[in-house]
Amino acid sequence: MTLMLASVLSREEAETALAYGADIIDCKDPARGALGALSLAQIKEIVAAVAGRRPVSAVVDLPHDAAHARQAFEEAIETGVEYVKFALPSTPDADEIIAALAPIAKRVKLVAVLFADLHPDFSRLPALAKAGFHGAMLDTAHKHNGRLIDIMTVGALSEFAASCHELRLAAGLAGALEPPDVPRLLVTGADVIGFRGALCEQGDRQGALSAAAVALIRDLIPTRPDVVEEMAAEWALIARGFIQPPGVDDTDCVFLHDYVLPMEVGAYAHEYGHTQRVRFNVDAEVTRAEISDDMRAVFSYDVIMDAIKMILASGHVAMVETIAERLAESVLLHERVRAVTVQVEKLDVAPGAVGVKIRRERHDHKRAVPD
Ligand SMILES: O=C[C@H](O)COP(=O)(O)O
Description:
Layout: E1 3-8, H1 11-19, E2 24-27, H2 40-50, E3 56-59, H3 66-78, E4 83-87, H4 94-100, H5 102-105, E5 109-115, H6 125-130, E6 135-139, H7 148-151, H8 154-166, E7 170-174, H9 181-186, E8 192-195, H10 211-220, H11 225-239, E9 251-263, E10 276-287, H12 301-313, H13 320-332, E11 337-346, E12 354-361, H14 364-367
Parallel strand pairs: 1-2, 1-8, 2-3, 3-4, 4-5, 5-6, 6-7, 7-8
Antiparallel strand pairs: 9-10, 10-11, 11-12
This protein binds glyceraldehyde-3-phosphate (G3H).
């Protein structure tokens, strides 16, 4: 389950974030940069307003010397927050700083933030785990330099999440994210996705929080288990014929055509060690959207491109059939997709094109309905 973190700067904004379903209320002053800390008094006020309805996180500015660092964390803990985030420095003494925070990690969930646009050092992850940190979160330091997803590919973000999970660390992602990024990031397996700009009027992270924007992001992230149960109950009614399933027989086609990329592919010895051109044609049959021009109703072709890039990043694949199967499988991970046709062609083998075309259907579609 991926949680939605909403950065807020006041108790009023915290109420909006809560009302529209944020899972973690993150105290932050966006005017003071990517990890701008609020004052202790402001954090206390938000903690009091949230009153345990959801966990609250706060940012600590990491002072240079150890004594002041400990004091800053102690003060943050006293505010009653459940998570404390801080920017992990990329200085040579980072491992020492991490080790010095081990006693603090026993008392509060510590999250180290790594900035994707400042050459993050992923070799520090084991030290975080050793010191008992709760997790690591990627964010962007300079919001005008693009979204996290522009800086790191979905494949690289998935690797980050997997490395965290191997070390039993929670993995968080944030960084000028926009609504269309959400379905793309869900496949990374991140535990938390964090937002500020996307929750504000006109996407301005220093502007006011917008209830509609918070609701949109909430709807794009699969809901909490209790809501899933509610949906299951609705499916039960559908199964018994009490209510009609929404547009259950109607599909539209989202496609990616003539997408050509260089790829290491082929079973012959001479096909190893270099790339050849591979063309992708993908047609995804998706459940028809009820509302038009609304992100919530959309399965994006970006997701198909991401899936292809992830397969490419995994290295040499001997058979185009394997590529087609993997691609079909990852497109079908998205619930709106009912069936997918994937055509994968090698363009440099013969004067024309050679390859494979497969069609795969979602089999759990009917099984989602309880007996
Ligand atoms: O912790 C999450 C952030 O506050 C993200 O802010 P942003 O979406 O404006 O980059």
